[in-house]
Structures are given as structure tokens and as C-alpha cells.
Specification:
Blueprint: E1 3-6, E2 10-12, E3 17-23, H1 25-28, E4 33-38, E5 45-50, E6 56-58, E7 66-71, E8 76-81, E9 90-96, E10 109-114
Parallel strand pairs: 2-10
Antiparallel strand pairs: 1-3, 3-8, 4-5, 4-9, 5-6, 7-8, 9-10
Length: about 120
Amino acid sequence: GQLVESGGDLVQAGGSLRLSCAASGSTFSGNAMGWYRQAPGKQREYVATISSGGSTDYVDSVKGRFTISRDNAKNVVYLQMNSLKPEDTAVYYCNTVPSFKNPNWGQGTQVTVSS
């Protein structure tokens, strides 16, 4: 299914961004959705997930700073990122959780946090 991420930008440390991910219905409906990120020279890593019912989970490094949400009517997943740190710099992707349910990753959206 198709995934289109947006909202990335260059921000200063301590700033905020809101990422959006528009998904096709077949990918979104009934599936847990998540955000992943890949920093330069590193493997892609899991960041946050939200179940179809709204339960959420986060990697420890973003707990208390990032909030994942979804709009089931619009097939959109959001990631509100506050108190950004330089180590949050990465290309951010959304996909199903687990990701093997959808092999078609989107292009991602670049988040750069300057110190």
C-alpha cells in the first residue's frame, strides 16, 4: 500500500515538528501503524506505534517528548515531536507494525535538528 510522509524540516534543538503520513486504506485499516527513523550511517529503527484501537508505545529515547496519533476517518498517522534533540535527526518513515505487513515503504521525510 501507498505511504506518503510529510512535515519534516530543519529546526533548532528544543523545537517542535508535526509529521503526517497518509496511507492507503488497505494499508491503514485495522492495522497497528508506526513511525520509524533512519539516521545517517545507521539502520532504520522503530520509534512509536499506535494500535487500531489507539493504544500507543514508544522507544525509550522519545518517551515524554513524542506523541503518535491516528485519524481513522482520513487514514492518516501523526507524530508530534517536542523538545527535539540533535540525535533525533533522521529520515522518518511510517508503516504498519510489524513492517513486514507492507513492503512498500514511502520516501520518508527529513528531520534535521541543529544544536
